Amino acid sequence: MTRLSVNVNKVALLRNSRPLDIPDVVRAAELAIDAGAHGITVHPRPDARHIRPDDVHSLHKLVRARGVEFNIEGNPFQTMLELVRTVRPDQCTLVPDDPGASTSDHGWDLGRDGARLQPVIAELKTLGVRVSLFMDALGQAMAAASATGADRVELYTEPYARAFGKADQAPVLARYVAAAKAAQRVGLGVNAGHDLNRDNLPLFLRTVPGVLEVSIGHALIADALEFGMKQTVVLYLRAVSARHPA
Question: Is 99 exposed, middle or buried (0-12, 13-18, 19+ CB in 10 A)?
Answer without folding.
Answer: exposed
